[in-house]
Specification:
Length: 87
């Protein structure tokens, strides 16, 4: 899985999150709610979405760092394995 694949997965997940967290009929205009309870409920949903995005970004960053840190060792092991497999 390369960086472009990861980015496509993240974009797809974010689109699903956005679609599933759309406010209901309690919203008359952007940010205008019928009641305080509706506004608080929407804020809670939005906060959970932000937490999910932040965690994904941290995970992607950690995966990239690990890949970069161990790239030479991994590629060397792959080369060695392929040489042995082709003989």
């Amino acid at each position: 899985m390369n960086q472009q694949d990861i980015e496509q997965v993240v974009k797809a997940v974010l689109l699903k999150m956005t679609a599933s967290s759309q406010p209901d009929d309690a919203v008359h205009e952007m940010g205008v709610f019928a009641s305080l309870d509706d506004a608080v409920a929407a804020a809670k949903v939005a906060q959970q979405g932000l937490k999910s995005v932040a965690m994904r970004q941290l995970a992607i960053h950690a995966i990239r760092e690990a890949g970069e840190k161990h790239a030479q060792r991994i590629s060397g092991a792959c080369r060695q394995r392929n040489r042995h497999g082709s003989r």
